From TrEMBL:
The keyword Membrane applies. Residues 17-146 form the DUF2489 domain. The chain crosses the membrane at residues 6-25. It holds the Pfam family DUF2489. This is DUF2489 domain-containing protein. It comes from Marinobacter nauticus. Keywords: Membrane, Transmembrane, Transmembrane helix. InterPro entries: DUF2489.
Length: 152
């Protein structure tokens, strides 16, 4: 084989090696960045979950100390438990959060409540208070239980 052809083949081989090394480097960098994003996402999700669990405990303490209406507590706890431990909403004593939520979720809140006719709001308040009264003991027991619940 002529010497010039050998040099051309060697140069082509070196160019191919260089291209492959560049491709490998880019892929390794992309994998590294993906792992870093994944780790940050997992840390964010873990922190968010811990904050939700803390919120659950704070709301439960507020229920125990009568600092919050039971209906509001049930709405908030049900929403938080949907993200943290939805299976608990099917178990006793926590089932009451779902039950109260289902009975009052149709009622207007916040701005919608302010924009609603006063007589209708009063009617809804009476209905809400009746639901709270009917489930007050269950809500208090469930709040105490959820405050001591381990979320693994």
């Amino acid at each position: 084989m002529p010497r010039g052809l050998q040099l051309v083949i060697i140069v082509l081989g070196l160019v191919a090696i260089g291209i492959l090394l560049y491709y490998i480097w880019r892929q390794a960098r992309a994998i590294s960045e993906h792992r870093l994003r994944q780790k940050k996402s997992e840390e964010f999700q873990a922190k968010r979950r811990d904050e939700m669990i803390e919120s659950i405990r704070i709301i439960a303490m507020a229920v125990e100390e009568d600092q919050v209406e039971y209906s509001e507590a049930c709405l908030r706890l049900k929403g938080l438990l949907d993200h943290v431990a939805p299976d608990l909403l099917e178990k006793s004593p926590f089932r009451v959060f779902q039950e109260v939520h289902d009975k009052i979720q149709h009622m207007p809140t916040h701005r919608a409540r302010q924009a609603t006719d006063t007589r209708f709001v009063e009617k809804m308040d009476k209905e809400r208070h009746a639901v709270e009264q009917a489930h007050s003991d269950e809500v208090r027991r469930a709040a105490t239980a959820i405050r001591h619940q381990r979320f693994d």
